Amino acid sequence: MKAFRRVSGPVAVLDRPDVDTDQIIPKQFLKRIERTGFGQFLFFDWRFDADGNPRPEFELNAPAAAGAKILVGGANFGCGSSREHAPWALQDYGFEVVIAPSFGDIFATNCVKVGLVPIVLPPDRLRPLIEAVGDGATVEVDLERQAIIDPAGRETAFDFDPFQRHCLLNGLDDIGRSLTHEDEITAYESSRPARVNTTALSAG
User: Fold this and answer.
1) Strands ordered across the beta sheet of 147-149
2) Is 104 buried (19+), middle (13-18) or exposed (0-12) by CB count in 10 A?
3) What is this structure's pTM?
4) Of 78, 74, 68, which Cα lies nearest the Cα of 127?
5) Which pLDDT belongs to residue 183?
6) How far apart are CA 86 and CA 139, in angstroms?
7) CA distance 111 to 185
8) Which of 34, 89, 105, 149 could join 38 via S-S bond, C-beta 3.0 to 4.6 A?
9) Residue 72 in contact with residue 100, Cβ under 8 Å?
10) Dist. CA 83–CA 59, nearest whole Å
């Protein structure tokens, strides 16, 4: 997993509550066996009409939202089913950070597992940020300092789970965390007696 420390880039605002994972990545696209390639289907039913044409009224189709690295969402973002494809799709589309007043718990955990940063900001701090930036404005998110810097240079502090922050800063997914204990694992395996070949014993 790629380590995350900070990102500076355009913002896209999807100011809607209860955006569920079925809207983030609709079920008909879950047949793929790869972790990549889901970005083209992100918010598919909202982004495109029945003929496959972009819906101009959808927030992410606005020209100012093109190339956004930071997504600002509404309360309970990522609710619904536990599909891990939702953060895959957001990340594949180009987002590195999602900021919202609250997240679905499993969605937020799945984000951290792939290096997508879910930041919780209470409404009283998120609303001024939305009003200050708008779609397309460049914002910096610094996970080391736990601060969001808007275009005017104003900083908004945010809380973040220390263990998850450590994993993101060091690019540690589940396998990476296990490998940090490689010496201990090797020592443990070396101390165990050799496995008995039960097949050979039964044949004898």
Assistant:
1) 117-120, 97-100, 70-73, 6-14, 138-142, 147-149, 155-157
2) buried
3) 0.85
4) 74
5) 62
6) 23
7) 27
8) 89
9) yes
10) 23
Secondary structure tally for the chain: helices H, strands E: 9, 7
The token pair at 189 is 């395996």
Phi, psi of 120 (to 5 degrees): -95, 125
Q: Amino acid letter at 121?
A: L
Give the tens place of pLDDT for each residue, 91-146.
999 999 999 999 999 999 999 999 999 999 999 999 988 888 776 789 999 999 99
Show the tokens assigned to 74: 């509404």
Calpha distance 45→141 (Å, rounded): 29
91, 114 contact by CB (below 8 A)? yes
- Long-range contacts made by residues 107-113, C-beta under 8 angstroms, separation at least 24? 107/21, 107/77, 107/78, 107/79, 107/82, 108/78, 110/82, 110/84, 110/86, 111/78, 111/87, 112/164, 112/167, 112/168, 113/1, 113/84, 113/87, 113/173, 113/174
- Between strands 138-142 and 147-149, the pairing is antiparallel
Chain length of the chain:
204
